Amino acid sequence: MNFDKELNARGMSCPLPIVKTKKALVDMSSGQVLKVISTDTGSLKDMAAFAEQTGNPLLSTVEESGEYIFYVQKK
Amino acid sequence: MATKKMAIIATKGTLDMAYPPFILASTAAALGYEVQVFFTFYGLQLLRKDLSSVMISPLANPAMPMPVPMPVMVQMLPGMESMATMMMKQKLKKHGVASLQELRDLCLEADVKFIACQMTVDLFEFDKSEFIDNIEYGGAATFMGFAGDTDICLFV
């Protein structure tokens, strides 16, 4: 999937992947896609909750070799 | 949609109890909430410029997981608190949990408003110059002014 910006949140625990995602989205423009890579199992549910509550669509969630890759679109 | 609001009262000044207010405040701010944290009693320690004196004690804290079971008589020995604090900080770091300093900075960056309880500051004769800048001082009524209109209100 195409993306405009990547956030490496590997090794970070709650709430850092979410807080850093929010920070990364701030300087992006509407419609752009942020790729977030996390190793925090909790982020699986949290990223979906973040997307739902902030209205930034979570386009896709991929789980591969212990990492979670999220594609979040800025609303 | 109106902005959601969250208020937290932080009353504890130990390392373990310092995390929940900062974690919840930074997360809520990331979710778009307007957040205020009211620091009172021992919670005021979390507003110090230097957070290195925030410690954890295994004493009277039987739920704290210990690498080896430790009798209370041993937990009382000098230096045990520093050791427990050091071990807890190492564990937090190993698991990628942010430091208190980092979480507090993230809160401030996200415009979380910190209010220090004026009464407790006077009671303990704290020196305001030891606290971080950009905080407000107020009392219970100040807190109610914001808390009365919140979606989430917590006491930690």
Task: Fill in the keyword field for this structure.
heterodimer; A: alpha+beta; Translation Initiation Factor IF3; four-stranded mixed β-sheet; 33% strand; globular; B: 156 residues; alpha/beta; Hypothetical Protein Ychn, Chain: A; 6 helices; 5 strands
What does this structure look like?
The complex is a heterodimer of chains A (about 80) and B (about 160). By secondary structure, chain A is an alpha+beta fold. Chain A has a single domain, classed as TusA-like domain (Translation Initiation Factor IF3, 2-Layer Sandwich). Chain A is about 30% helix and about 35% strand. Chain A contains two helices and four strands, in the order E-H-E-H-E-E. Chain A has a four-stranded mixed beta sheet, with helices on one face. Chain A is globular. The model of chain A has no long low-confidence stretch (mean pLDDT about 95). Chain B has about 160 residues and is an alpha/beta fold. In chain B, about 40% of the residues lie in helices and about 15% in strands. Chain B has helices spanning about 15-30, 70-75, 80-95, 100-110, 120-125, 140-145; strands at about 5-10, 35-40, 115, 135-140, 150-155. Chain B has a five-stranded parallel beta sheet, with helices on both faces. In chain B, helix 5 (about 120-125) links the parallel strand 3 (about 115) and strand 4 (about 135-140). In chain B, helix 1 (about 15-30) packs parallel to helix 4. The longest helix of chain B has 16 residues, at about 15-30. Chain B is globular, with a radius of gyration of 17 Å. The interface of A and B includes residues 13, 21, 23, 50 and 54 of A.
